[in-house]
Amino acid sequence: MRRVRMYLVIFLSLFVLGLIVKTYYDTNVFKVEGLEITTSKLEMDQSFTVLQLTDLHNKQFGDHNEKLLHKIEELDADVIVITGDLIDRRTDSLQFVFDFAEKLTAINSSVYFVSGNHEWENSKRESFFQGLADKGIQLIDNQNLSIEIENITFQLAGVGDPSTKHDNIEGAMDGLNVDDVTFLLSHAPDLSRTDYPEPIDLVLSGHTHGGQIRLPLIGAIVAPDQGFFPKYDQGIFDLNERQQLYIDSGLGTSLIDVRMFNQSQMTLITVKGVGK
């Protein structure tokens, strides 16, 4: 009996230690998730890449985010999009995020941003938005733009954070061409929609943190705006026959600085044509 107890104590100790190591790794070591999107709006030999960052919440990977910035430079995406919550609602000093923005735009001049709930809940939001603009990051809340990538025309639309009711889908859609590949940036997935206006092919969101804490075989325990065991937690979802929603589980944390079975990540999206 004493030997059984000893083995049980050893097993439990190793289990707890493994859980601690796994949690630390998931929280502090990021990965690059890959996502491939095919479209008939491009010819078969046409493609481009979009790197999505979301929910950084002032998290640092290496001194001054050197590890994160090095990987971003290495990936060399055509366009970088940030789907909100670069800062936390409690963020007091903005210097960290401005330094990050400056280094990011030095790597890639095509960086676009939509606001998240934490930006709107921060008293320094106006200084934050202006500071990003000064560093070369373009805020596209409730508007859109056309991007030329070699011989490809790509449309990018954005809405202000839906969870804090700063979104205006009509403004975001104004003037879009239905024939061009079009992504919509929306920090929080708009749970009231399973059908977007015709130009939209893919919606890119964050906000959920993938549940932040997940359990094997069960998935996310809870997500903001969805409660327990959320349907739209992370990954790709078919909204209808022509539109998809992708939710990146993000890089940072909120409330508690812990991720479990849900590694910090950013997503490299490759868009490939299948012929018109």
Automatic annotation (TrEMBL):
<dbReference type="InterPro" id="IPR004843">
    <property type="entry name" value="Calcineurin-like_PHP"/>
</dbReference>
<dbReference type="GO" id="GO:0046872">
    <property type="term" value="F:metal ion binding"/>
</dbReference>
<dbReference type="GO" id="GO:0008758">
    <property type="term" value="F:UDP-2,3-diacylglucosamine hydrolase activity"/>
</dbReference>
<dbReference type="InterPro" id="IPR029052">
    <property type="entry name" value="Metallo-depent_PP-like"/>
</dbReference>
<keyword id="KW-0378">Hydrolase</keyword>
<keyword id="KW-0479">Metal-binding</keyword>
<dbReference type="Pfam" id="PF00149">
    <property type="entry name" value="Metallophos"/>
</dbReference>
<protein>
    <recommendedName>
        <fullName>Calcineurin-like phosphoesterase domain-containing protein</fullName>
    </recommendedName>
</protein>
<dbReference type="GO" id="GO:0016020">
    <property type="term" value="C:membrane"/>
</dbReference>
<feature type="domain" description="Calcineurin-like phosphoesterase">
    <location>
        <begin position="49"/>
        <end position="210"/>
    </location>
</feature>
<dbReference type="InterPro" id="IPR051158">
    <property type="entry name" value="Metallophosphoesterase_sf"/>
</dbReference>
<dbReference type="GO" id="GO:0009245">
    <property type="term" value="P:lipid A biosynthetic process"/>
</dbReference>
